[in-house]
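Appendix B, example 12.
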Amino acid sequence: MPTYHDRTNDIVDLCLLAGKIMLESGGETYRVEDTMMRIAASFGIPRSHSYVTPTGIIFSIDRMNSTQFIRIVERSTDLQKVALVNNISRRISNGELSLDEAYKQLKKVEKQKFAYSLSQQVAAAAIASGCFAVMFGGWNNFFPSLLAGGAGFYCFEMIHRLVKIRFFAEFFASFISGGLAMILVAIGLGANLDKIIIGSVMPLVPGLVITNAVRDLMAGHFLAGLSKGAEAFLTAFAIGTGIALILSIG
């Protein structure tokens, strides 16, 4: 791999772009930092420094007069993008991509939309909710949990797109799931209200955030791990509050 000492700023931009894509797509903090430093080293800059939090990336190179910072506003779950960036990073390390080629491929990954359509996501959430209900309480809870879980996830997506307030969508989605579950049990379509509610809110549970929080803590990134853990706790609290409110009303 040739070195690009006269294009240091371009290398920094490449590293920041790779880190931004990974962090916005649900990548772990330590993985983002490691990928950025490996890319810089592959282009002849072995001494680079990165500091990543869930809401920002700081990156600098020794003997440079400036430090670059990127603010991360929107985060989602798109592990295919994380895998693609990892693959590009490996190809850079193996000398298969030049600086310009790598930047073009990363920009292409950034623009691509790998997320499934809303109808596919709702269908998957509904089926998952029904299966969880079967696992917890039997087949007589499958259909009501399927309906409640699908409706709750649809409301979650719609509210999240309209109102950019964290934990607001989770609260109302769980409230709607719990209310629909109570109605279905009341008309005789379900046997166990608690099992149906548990199954219907499972698609809202922040499983990836909890996993990343634990992995960051184990990697020594305590600030990122604690912040992600707090995010997961508040999400779970919002879900529990929505269910508690509808149960108190009913």
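The CA atoms of residues 150 and 238 lie 18 Å apart. The first helix runs from residue 8 to 24.
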